[in-house]
Design brief:
Blueprint (H helix, E strand, L loop, with lengths): L2 E10 L3 H4 L1 H4 E12 L2 E7 H4 L13 E3 L4 E5 L1 E7 L13 H14 L4 H17 L2 E7 L4 H14 L2 E5 L1 E2 L12 H15 L5 E7 L7 H13 L4 E6 L3 H10 L6 H7 L7 E5 L5 H10 L2 E4 L1 H6 L7 H4 L8 E3 L11 H14 L6 H8 L1 H6 L17 E5 L4 H7 L5 H11 L5 E6 L2 E5 L7
Parallel strand pairs: 1-4, 1-5, 6-7, 7-8, 8-10, 9-10, 10-11, 11-12, 12-13, 13-14
Antiparallel strand pairs: 1-2, 2-3, 5-15, 15-16, 16-17
Helix pairs in contact: 5-6, 6-7, 7-8, 14-15, 14-18, 17-18
Bound molecules: zinc ion (ZN).
């Protein structure tokens, strides 16, 4: 059914790291967005499009008039997240390798039970909608049923999601271990079952080089090459002890990235989480191969992994496709605002200020570019899928007060990044269908 939204709207039309902020950010103070069959049919000023509000039978189409302190924006995209770790967000006190053993593998082992995994997927996706996140690249557990559970629930909501079962055949407890052959066969069966079904895409998911044998790494690369259009995701250069571990496991390779390169795992539609401790050679190689990085700042801060140098990743002479990501449960919040704020702090830690426009880009269009989905989601334009959020720019008394001091749109966006949470997400649409509307009763 055709319907329309009228209100202030923002979208990124280009990469501000390359094109500059002003040419990239589009701000319509009184926009009209026409939605039809899950897609955006038209987007422009209300004045220029008001004639389209009359349907073919001469009847006005349904219109939602947004409020004075509301802002329509593209849904946020999470380019790296572990739905199976939802129960352990905020688990206390360790760094990466210990954290994996003490918490992550224990939580993931429970997903052998499909009913449990389905329940977890439902809770995870509900939180995504409440926080305005409409798409993501998702890690399941080693169990194929955890993928079935996730894709079933995402499909029921009509969400654009990519996901895959993690491949790990060494250095992990038996309950979450597969073998090279079994991992390959289970992944292929999942690809056959799910890839390209509606808005779902399969992502071959070797967890990271230390937990896959050379045989499994080779099979994962071959599987990806044998299934055109599928994705591949893994972790890269998150902590220094991990780098040393990779060096000892793969002594013949030049560096960490070269391990993935050697096994045919770099290229368009490959996404690597973190990318903190990378050499110039590795960054150049990521660019040359069209491989993407998912920047996971709350997780990096929480596990004391280091600060990602996002400005270096986006350097104009060899830009790397980069998106923001929560990396839950190592990450600490579902909220894109908390994630953008952590990205700002990570940039501060390495000597520069990430602007609100750059942060917003990384959480929307930039993440879509990292996932090679920029022609479908991540911005507002005719032909794009209608994954949208309506933000309340005055969602708490403090933010409402702060708003009176803001002189520019950029000020307003930055205040949201610092102060807002899920209360700022008034509504979330998936393919034009309203799936979340904030409960007014919970307002301050
Ligand atoms: Zn991760």
């Amino acid at each position: 059914m055709r319907h329309a939204l009228r209100g202030a709207a923002i979208t990124l039309e280009a990469d501000p790291f390359l094109a500059g902020e002003a040419p990239s950010l589009r701000h319509e103070t009184d926009a009209l967005i026409i939605i039809n069959e899950g897609h955006i049919e038209a987007f422009g000023s209300f004045e220029s499009l008001r004639h389209t509000l009359i349907g073919s039978a001469g009847v006005p189409i349904p219109l939602r008039q947004c409020g004075q302190h509301e802002l329509i924006a593209p849904g946020f995209i999470d380019s790296h997240v572990h739905y199976v770790q939802t129960p352990i967000i905020g688990a206390y006190g360790t760094q990466l390798i210990d954290w994996l053993e003490r918490y992550a593998f224990v939580a993931e082992a429970r997903c052998a039970d499909e009913a449990y995994a389905r329940n977890m997927a439902r809770a995870f996706l509900g939180e995504c909608l409440r926080n305005g996140t409409t798409s993501g690249a998702v890690y399941c557990s080693v169990h194929p049923q955890s993928v079935d559970a996730f894709f079933s629930e995402a499909s029921a909501l009509g969400m654009r999601m990519m996901a895959g079962k993690v491949l790990m055949d060494r250095n992990v407890p038996a309950r979450v271990r597969d073998s090279a052959q079994r991992g390959h066969d289970e992944s292929q069966a999942l690809i056959d079952r799910w890839h390209g079904q509606g808005r779902l895409q399969y992502c071959i998911t070797p967890r990271f080089a230390p937990t896959s044998s050379p045989e499994q790494m080779a099979m994962a690369g071959a599987l990806w090459q044998a299934n055109p259009g599928t994705y591949l995701q893994s972790h890269l250069a998150e902590t220094l002890p991990e780098l040393a571990w990779v060096r000892s496991l793969y002594p013949d390779r030049l560096d960490y990235l070269d391990v993935y390169d050697h096994y045919g795992q770099l290229g368009p539609r490959a996404i690597y989480g973190h990318g903190i401790h990378l050499s110039e050679r590795e960054m150049a190689r990521l660019h040359d191969t069209g491989t993407s990085i998912a920047h996971c700042p709350t997780s990096n801060e929480f596990l004391a992994s280091g600060a990602c140098r996002v400005r270096d990743l986006k350097r104009a002479d060899r830009p790397i496709r980069t998106g923001l990501a929560t990396d839950l449960g190592g990450g600490t919040s579902f909220s894109p605002f908390a994630t953008m704020l952590a990205a700002y702090r990570a940039a501060q830690a390495v000597g520069y200020s990430l602007s609100p426009v750059h942060a917003w880009y990384l959480a929307t269009r930039g993440a879509a570019e990292a996932l090679r989905l920029e022609d479908r989601v991540g911005s507002i334009a005719p032909g794009m899928e209608a994954d949208l959020v309506l933000l309340d720019l005055a969602s708490t008394p403090l933010i409402a007060r702060r708003l009176t001091e803001c002189e520019t749109l950029e000020d307003q966006l930055f205040a949201q990044i610092v102060l807002a949470d899920d209360r700022a997400v008034r509504a979330t649409w998936i393919a034009g269908v309203l799936h979340h509307e904030r409960d007014e009763r919970h307002q301050p």
